[in-house]
Amino acid sequence: MKNIDAGIIGLGRLGSVHAKHLIEKIQGVNLISACALDDEQLKWAHDSLGIPGIYKDYRKMIDTEDLDAIFIVAPTGFHPEMTEYALNAGLHVFCEKPLGLDMTEVNGMTQAIKNHPKQIFQTGFMRRFDASYQYAKRMVDNGEIGKIIYMRGYGIDPISGMASFTKFASEADSGGIFVDMNIHDVDLIRWFTGHEPIKTWALGSNIAAPELKKIGEYETGVAQLQLDNGVIATLLGGRHAAHGNQVELEIMGSNGWIRVGEIPEKNLVTVFNEHGVVRPAMQSFSERFNTAFTVELQDFINNIQNGTQPEATVNDGIRALTIAKACQQSADSGEIVDIP
């Protein structure tokens, strides 16, 4: 099959991971152009990855290069306009989560996707491609833990990422902790249960990082969800884990429990020293989901070459965003919010 010629928009923390994977690991794709506003990021893409086409204007990149597909890893607020522009240019689109911040813009983006049914649109719910979550999903689907009663999703960044996040959130709208951090957990809850959250009550605090209050962000957010079949779920997002990156999912069933990522073990090493008996922990989301990111991108390329639509649809992205925004609304208002 013909290799897919692709470009990428955004070379930040996640964009640089995707770019490196596309160059070094993904089969069937040529990453021939990259767009970013930062000169150092563009220099890295050109000099270290060998990407020939370097741009600061994504429209110019799409208009100039002979592309088949685009990877959008820019700040969330730009996702709708970039997706629409790329689709109208005839490109297949991989767009990182969330789909956007403004629901009117996201609805316009959704209509553009529907207007181009022969083009592949895929959103970045990479946890669906993680082997551990897939193993747990098969167990649930096979009835091995009975009926799901309760779910709990943790997403807590390490303290070491606080300065980077503060800079990002000061310059761009993150969407709030539930949209930025817990949207993956929302997607997993829907994926595992096959049901929709209908009501939420959420709280936020800045006890560990009071400086975030100045930029309208919570350091910790907790949301309780009620699903349409009676299942209860809890989301916990945070930015202050002392030990590393804590991404955990618990599924409580009528005949058993499953926990994925309860201990974020870096490897199989146990250290015996003056600190006691220590198991090194993973320090970043990119380290934890490195393989899942690779499988996800490969799936997108395969879908383009085979003409198949991805499992996670734009509707999954819309539902996850709607639910996460309702959680943020509840935390900000202190009220229980019905989820449309």
Automatic annotation (TrEMBL):
GO cellular component: cytoplasm
Any one GO BP annotation for this protein: NADPH regeneration
All residue ranges annotated as the Gfo/Idh/MocA-like oxidoreductase N-terminal domain in the record: 6-120
Stretches assigned to the Gfo/Idh/MocA-like oxidoreductase C-terminal domain: 137-338
Keyword Oxidoreductase appears in the UniProt entry: yes
Keywords for this protein: Oxidoreductase
Pfam families associated with the record: GFO_IDH_MocA, GFO_IDH_MocA_C
GO MF, any single term: oxidoreductase activity
InterPro entries tied to this protein: Gfo/Idh/MocA-like_OxRdtase_C, Gfo/Idh/MocA-like_OxRdtase_N, NAD(P)-bd_dom_sf
Family note: Belongs to the Gfo/Idh/MocA family.
The protein's name in its UniProt record: Inositol 2-dehydrogenase
UniProt source species: Lentilactobacillus diolivorans DSM 14421
